[in-house]
C-alpha cells in the first residue's frame, strides 16, 4: 500500500482530527483561519473551534487580485501566476498562525482551503447551451500543502459542479451538520459579498434543507466605498449611508434584475451585482449624479430588501423562524436593522454568536467540516438537498 493511502486510512479512523479551515471572501481583506478539533462525521460530527483569526493580506493582494476578479477579459499570464502565488501566501499565513498559537505543523491533520474565487459563472448567468455551470477558485492546493507541510484538501466547488450543482452555496452541508435544531425553524444567513441563506426546518432531514443566494450583500456597498471614499474599504458603522437618503426610483430599478425573481435554489456573484450594474441602472433613470451618500443608502436598502423579504416569505410559509447571521454584514448596523424591518414580526434576527460561534469564523469552520466529510464521511448514506448533489468534495494535495 502506498504510504499516503495508508496515512489517509489511519486518518479516517482517528477519533478526532485537527483541521485548519481557510476562507478568503470577495472582500479580499484577509484570510480567515480556524483551527478546529473535529470528531465523528455526518450527524455525529462534533467540532471545537480552538483558535480563530483573520490574517490581514498585504496591500498587493487586493491590487493584484482585482486585475482578474469578476472580469471576463484578463491577462492570462497574470491569472496563472496568481494561482501559485495565492497558494503559497495562504500556506505561509497558516504557518504564521500555527507559530502564534504554539501548534506544531505535525499536530495538524489537514488544511481545508477554499481558495480565492475570481469568477463564478453558473449557466443561468452565461446562457451558453454548449457549457454547463462553472466557477474558478485560485490558490492551488499543492502550493498550500508544500508551503505549509500539511495535507491540504482544496477546490471543493469543482466536484459540486461536476456532479450537477452550481458550485455554490456550499454552506448547506456544514450548516445542517452543525446547526440543525429539533426545537425551532432556523435560517443561517451569511452576509458576505453575496447574501445567502440555509433554511433548516425544525427536526428536518438533510433533504429538507434549502440553500440559495439571495442577491448582493456587501459587494456593491464595499466596491462603491472603495471607489469614491478611498482609502476606506467599507462603510464602518454605516457612517456614510446614514448621511444619505434612499432614492426610491433607483431602488426599484436595481430590484428588477431577473436573478432576484428566479426560483430558489440559485447562485450569483459580483460578476452580476457590481458597479457596472449600478451605473446601468442609474443611466436608465438619467440619475448619474446622485450624492454618493444617497447611493450608499440606496445600495444598503437594496441588499436589505432582498434578504428581508425572502425571510418574510419563509416565515409566512412555515411560521416563526430564528435567523442567525454571520459574515461581514453583521457589522453593518444599518443593513442589519433594515433586514429586521423587512423580515417582519415572525422573524427573529440575531448574530451567530447566539449559537456559540464567532460569526466571522463560520465559513472557515464550514470548510473544515467539508474536509472532515471528505476524510471520514459517508455521503452515499445521506439524502440529497434539493438542487444540490450529495457528494464528497475536495482534492487532496500531499506535502511531499
UniProtKB/TrEMBL annotation:
Matching Pfam families: AnmK
E.C. number: 2.7.1.170
UniProt keyword annotation of Repeat present: no
Entry-linked InterPro entries: Anhydro_N_Ac-Mur_kinase, ATPase_NBD
Keyword annotations from UniProtKB, A to Z: ATP-binding, Carbohydrate metabolism, Kinase, Nucleotide-binding, Transferase
Stored SUPFAM superfamilies: Actin-like ATPase domain
Catalysis: reaction(s): 1,6-anhydro-N-acetyl-beta-muramate + ATP + H2O = N-acetyl-D-muramate 6-phosphate + ADP + H(+)
EC category: transferase
Signal peptide: none
Top-level taxon of origin: Bacteria
GO BP term, example: 1,6-anhydro-N-acetyl-beta-muramic acid catabolic process
Annotated residues for binding of ATP: 25-32
Biological or metabolic pathway of the protein: Amino-sugar metabolism; 1,6-anhydro-N-acetylmuramate degradation; Cell wall biogenesis; peptidoglycan recycling
UniProt record similarity statement: Belongs to the anhydro-N-acetylmuramic acid kinase family.
General function of this protein: Catalyzes the specific phosphorylation of 1,6-anhydro-N-acetylmuramic acid (anhMurNAc) with the simultaneous cleavage of the 1,6-anhydro ring, generating MurNAc-6-P. Is required for the utilization of anhMurNAc either imported from the medium or derived from its own cell wall murein, and thus plays a role in cell wall recycling.
Protein name stated in the entry: Anhydro-N-acetylmuramic acid kinase
Gene: anmK
Amino acid at each position: 500500500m502506498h504510504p499516503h493511502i495508508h496515512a489517509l486510512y489511519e486518518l479516517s479512523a482517528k477519533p478526532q482530527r485537527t483541521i485548519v479551515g481557510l476562507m478568503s471572501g470577495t472582500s479580499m481583506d484577509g484570510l480567515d483561519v480556524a483551527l478546529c478539533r473535529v470528531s465523528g462525521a455526518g450527524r455525529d460530527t462534533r467540532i471545537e473551534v480552538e483558535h480563530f483569526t483573520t490574517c490581514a493580506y498585504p496591500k498587493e493582494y487586493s491590487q493584484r487580485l482585482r486585475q482578474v476578479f469578476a472580469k471576463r477579459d484578463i491577462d492570462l499570464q497574470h491569472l496563472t501566476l496568481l494561482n501559485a502565488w495565492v497558494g503559497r501566501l495562504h500556506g505561509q499565513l497558516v504557518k504564521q498562525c500555527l507559530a502564534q498559537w504554539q501548534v506544531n505543523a505535525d499536530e495538524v491533520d489537514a488544511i481545508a482551503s477554499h481558495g480565492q474565487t475570481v469568477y463564478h459563472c453558473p449557466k443561468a448567468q452565461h446562457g451558453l447551451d454548449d457549457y454547463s455551470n462553472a466557477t474558478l477558485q485560485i490558490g492551488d492546493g499543492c502550493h498550500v500543502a508544500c508551503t505549509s507541510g500539511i495535507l491540504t484538501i482544496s477546490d471543493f466547488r469543482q466536484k459540486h459542479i461536476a456532479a450537477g450543482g452550481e458550485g455554490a452555496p456550499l454552506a448547506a452541508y456544514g450548516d445542517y451538520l452543525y446547526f440543525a435544531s429539533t426545537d425551532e425553524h432556523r435560517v443561517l444567513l451569511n452576509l458576505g459579498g453575496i447574501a445567502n441563506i440555509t433554511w433548516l426546518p425544525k427536526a428536518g432531514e438533510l433533504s429538507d434543507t434549502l440553500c440559495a443566494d439571495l442577491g448582493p450583500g456587501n459587494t456593491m456597498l464595499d466596491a462603491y466605498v472603495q471607489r469614491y471614499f478611498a482609502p476606506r474599504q467599507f462603510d464602518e458603522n454605516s457612517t456614510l449611508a446614514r448621511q444619505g437618503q434612499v432614492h426610491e426610483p433607483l431602488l426599484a430599478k436595481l430590484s428588477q434584475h431577473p436573478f432576484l425573481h428566479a426560483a430558489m435554489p440559485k447562485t450569483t456573484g459580483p460578476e452580476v451585482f457590481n458597479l457596472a450594474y449600478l451605473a446601468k441602472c442609474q443611466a436608465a433613470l438619467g440619475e448619474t449624479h446622485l450624492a454618493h451618500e444617497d447611493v450608499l443608502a440606496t445600495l444598503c436598502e437594496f441588499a436589505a430588501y432582498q434578504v428581508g423579504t425572502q425571510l418574510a416569505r419563509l416565515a409566512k410559509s412555515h411560521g416563526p423562524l430564528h435567523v442567525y447571521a454571520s459574515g461581514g454584514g453583521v457589522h453593518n448596523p444599518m443593513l442589519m436593522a433594515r433586514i429586521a424591518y423587512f423580515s417582519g414580526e415572525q422573524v427573529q434576527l440575531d448574530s451567530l454568536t447566539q449559537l456559540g460561534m464567532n460569526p466571522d469564523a463560520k465559513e472557515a469552520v464550514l470548510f473544515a467540516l467539508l474536509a472532515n466529510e471528505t476524510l471520514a464521511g459517508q455521503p452515499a448514506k445521506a439524502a440529497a438537498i434539493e438542487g444540490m448533489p450529495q457528494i464528497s468534495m475536495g482534492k487532496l494535495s500531499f506535502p511531499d
